[in-house]
Design brief:
CATH architecture: Orthogonal Bundle
Number of strands: 2
Strand content: 5-15%
Largest sheet: 2 strands, antiparallel
Helix content: 55-70%
CATH superfamily: EF-hand
Mean pLDDT: 85
Shape: globular
Radius of gyration: 11 Å
Length: 72
């Protein structure tokens, strides 16, 4: 599966309210799934790092950047 398809599917699963962004609570679920037991502090740090426009949510483009950065 290519990275864009994987991000699209990941985004669809974790954008639970289907508003087109990953909210803070949805992001916590996403990070827990991706990183397992790394802890909430890491989640907060990653959220702030990738919420580039400080909207308190993660867009699909921000998620794509996060997945690429964390995977490499």
């Amino acid at each position: 599966m290519e990275i864009n398809q994987w991000v699209d599917e990941l985004f669809e699963v974790f954008d639970e309210d289907k508003d087109g962004v990953i909210s803070r609570s949805e992001f916590v679920d996403l990070i827990e799934c991706l990183l397992q037991d790394k802890g909430i502090r890491m989640c907060e740090s990653i959220f702030h790092q990738f919420d580039k426009n400080h909207s308190n949510s993660i867009s699909k483009d921000e998620l794509r950047e996060m997945v690429i950065d964390l995977a490499l």
